[in-house]
Amino acid sequence: MISMFAKYEPSEIEPKWQKVWEEKGLNKTDIAGAKKPFYNLWMFPYPSAEGLHVGHAFASTASDIYGRFKRLQGFDVFQPIGYDSFGIHSENFALKIGEHPKKFTDRATKNYERQLRAMGHMYDWSRTVTTSDPNYYKWTQWIFLQIYKAGLAYRGKAMVNFCPKCKTVLSDEQVVDGACERCKTAVEKKEMEQWFFKITAFADRLLKNLDNLDWTAKIKLTQKNWIGKKIGVLVNFDAVEIFTTRIDTILGATFVVLSPNHSLANKIKTVVNPATKKEIPVFVDEYVLDSVGTGAIMGVPAYDERDMAFAKKNNLPILTDFELVLDIKIGKEMVIYHLRDWLISRQRYWGAPIPMINCAKCGWVAVPEKDLPILLPEITDYQPEGNGRGPLANHPEFYQTKCPKCGGEATRETDVCDTFLDSSWYELRYPSTRSSGSDQVPFDPEITKKWLPVNMYMGGAEHAVLHLMYFRFVTMVLRDLGFIDFEEPTKSFFAHGLIIKDKAKMSKSRGNVVNPDEYITKYGVDSLRLYFMFMGPVEQGGDFRDDGIKGMRRWVDRVFRIVSSNLSNLSKRSNPILERELNKLIQKAERDFESRHYNTTIAKMMEFINLLSDDKLQMTNEQIKKFLIILAPFAPHLAEELYQILEIQGQVLEPRIPALPDGRQNLRPSAFLSIHQQPWPKSDLLPQAELATVIIQINGKLRGKLENIKTDLADNQELLVEKAKQDSNVKKFLFGKKIKQVIYAKGKVLNFVCG
C-alpha cells in the first residue's frame, strides 16, 4: 500500500488510493448509525454525450472539498451522486445521433461515473439514483398523484410557450429572453390543453420564506423578482381591465396598449380614461406581455421610459403637467404575481408517463397507486412530431386501458412529465435508496427525519427559477400533506460561478472546450482540483488557462519533495515561527472553507511551503500531520500518500505481495487509518477578529458602506440596519420613502427595498 516515490506520480498514486478507499468503504455513510449527520449535496448533472465537462468538474470539486472539510470536523457526511437522466437534454442528443434515448443514457451515465470516480470525490456510490430508472420514476409518478389528490394539479386550456425545434411546450421558467432555454430557438404561442401544478397558491409562502433562508443572496433576489408580488389597483378602461401600481398617475394616461394575445386585441380602437373621461386610443404591441398583470397597460409616457418611446414612435400626446391623484377611488385594490402555474406536460417520449387516465364517463381519473410505475415502453418511433401530441399517442398498446372507477374503455395520458419534476424530490430519495422496504415507499420516514433537510446544497445560479423554485414547491406540498415535517428542502444553498477559457465562454465553435480527462491524464487530478480552486472564489468561477495548471502541477511536485524531505529528517522541537504560521493557516482555512474562498487558503499554503524552503526549516511529525490535513480536502491523493509515509515512520512494516512493477516491495503498516479520518487540527492562537465592510444599497444602488464591522455586529441584522440608517447619505436617500423589505447578505451587502 505504501510506496516511496522519488517524485509525485499521479498516474500511479491516484488510482491506488481510490482503490484503497473503495475497498475500505471509506466514503460509505452509516445512514442509520450516524451520530452527527451532515448532508452535503451537489446538484446532480444531466448525462450528455460529451461527458463531464470542466464546469461540472469545477462545481463538483468545490462541493467535494466542503464535504471533506466537514468530515474532518467530525461530522458524518453523506455525499451522494446521481443522474438527472430523463428529459429533453438527453433525448435531443440521442435524436441527433440516431440512438435510442435509453441506450444513449445508459452509456452516458457509465462514462460520467468513470469521470467522477477519477476526480477522487468522496461520493457514496452505493446510493446512486438515476431518474430514468423505473424504481425511481415510480415515485415521481406517485408525487404527481399526491399533488393531484391535493387539488393542486389540473388540466386546462391556456396560451403556452411552444418550442418549434424541441417540438414541445415549455414552462415560463424555461423561456429566457423569448427563447427556449435549452436550444435557444424563439418560442411560439399556442393555445393547448395541458397539465398544470398550482404553484401560484404557494407564491406568498415561497416569497416570505426567502427571508429566513441561508442562500446565496443573488439567488434569493432572483426568486423574489420572479415571484414578482405587486400590490396595486385593478381599474376598468371600458371593457379593458388594467392592473397598475401607479393609480396616482392615471390623469397622465394618454393611451392603452394590449398584448398581442389579449382577448380584445385588434377588436377595439378606443376606450375612455375613467379619471379624465377622455377617449384615448388602444394599440397592440409586443412590449406588453401576457404574463404581466392583465396583459394590458395604461400608457403614462411622463412616468415610464417604454411608454415614452411608444408615444414618440406613434406621435401620441405626452402630458408632463398633471396632478398626481393620491386619494383616487377608481378601481379595486389587488395583489398580483409574475409567477404562473407550473406547466408540467411535455409532448416528448423520454420522460415519466403522466399517471392519469381519461374516461368518457368519469373524466380524468388518477392511476391507482398499486399500479405504479406506469412503465415507459421501448418504442422505435420516439421522435416528437410537433403536432401537440407525444410519440406515445401513436401506440394504442400503451394508451388503451380500463377506467379504474367504472371499468369502461379509457385512454392513458400520452404526455410525459417535465424533467424538473424528477429533480424536485431527489434529495429525499438518496438516503433511503438502500433502506429496508425502499421499494415500498419513496423515502423512509425515520431516515428522512434524521437526514433532511439538506445541510448544504451547491449548484448553478442558472437554476434559480427553474429547479430551485420547483424544488421548494414540492417540498412544501409534501409537508402540507404530512409526509415530511419541514417545508424547505435545504438549510443552505451556495451558487458557484462560471468557468471560462482564455477570457471567453467555452463553445465548440471557439474550440476552447475543456475536457477534464486530458488534464487528469497529463497533470493528475490533485493538480486539477487545486487549480480549479485557485482561480478565484467559488462564487465567481474563473478563467481556465493551461499555463496556470502547469504551474499548479509544479507546486504539487514541490510539496511532495519538501514534505518528503522533512519526513526523512523530522525535527524533534517545534520551531516557533513555523508553529505560528501553521496556526494562522489553520484559522484562515476554517474561515475560507465556510465562505468557499479556497483560493486564499491555497495561497497561504504556498506561503507556508515557501517558508519551509527558503529558511530551510524542519517540521515536527505533528506539524506535518496538521499541514497535510489542511491539504487533504484539496489534494486527497497527495495528502494520503504523504500521510501514510509519515505513519509508517517507527511502525513495524510488512511486505505486501505482489511487489511493485520495478521490483520494490510495497510496504504497508499493520493497521490502516486514512488521513481523511483524522480530526481537524486546532489552532493554539486566539481567534482573530474578522472585520467586514458592508455595502449599503437602496433599491440596489450603492448609497454608502459600513467599514471595520466586527463579527458580532455582522451577525446582527437589526443592529446593522440601525447603524446604516445613521449614515448621512443613506438618510438622505431614505427620506420620505417607505422601507418595504431589508435584504441582507451577511457581512457583504445590506439592501433597503423602498416604495
Would you kindly provide a brief summary of this structure?
The protein has 755 residues and is an alpha/beta fold. It contains 23 helices and 34 strands. The protein has 5 domains: 31-126 and 423-496, Rossmann fold (3-Layer(aba) Sandwich), CATH 3.40.50; 140-198 and 342-420, Rossmann fold (3-Layer(aba) Sandwich), CATH 3.40.50.620; 231-336, Valyl/Leucyl/Isoleucyl-tRNA synthetase, editing domain (Isoleucyl-tRNA Synthetase, domain 2, Alpha-Beta Complex), CATH 3.90.740.10; 546-677, Isoleucyl-tRNA Synthetase, Domain 1 (Orthogonal Bundle), CATH 1.10.730.10; 691-754, Ubiquitin-like (UB roll), CATH 3.10.20.590.
Fold and architecture overview:
34% of the residues lie in helices and 20% in strands. Helix 1 (10-24) crosses helix 20 (636-648), helix 15 (525-534) packs across helix 16 (546-567) and helix 17 (576-595) runs antiparallel to helix 18 (598-614). The protein folds into 5 domains: 31-126 and 423-496, HUPs (Rossmann fold, 3-Layer(aba) Sandwich); 140-198 and 342-420, HUPs (Rossmann fold, 3-Layer(aba) Sandwich), CATH 3.40.50; 231-336, Alpha-Beta Complex (Isoleucyl-tRNA Synthetase, domain 2); 546-677, Isoleucyl-tRNA Synthetase, Domain 1, CATH 1.10.730; 691-754, Ubiquitin-like (UB roll), CATH 3.10.20.590. A 5-stranded parallel beta sheet has the order 2-1-25-26-10. The chain has a 4-stranded antiparallel beta sheet with strand order 6-5-9-18. Strands 14-15-13-16 form a 4-stranded mixed beta sheet, with helices on one face. It contains 23 helices and 34 strands. It has 755 residues and is of the alpha/beta class.
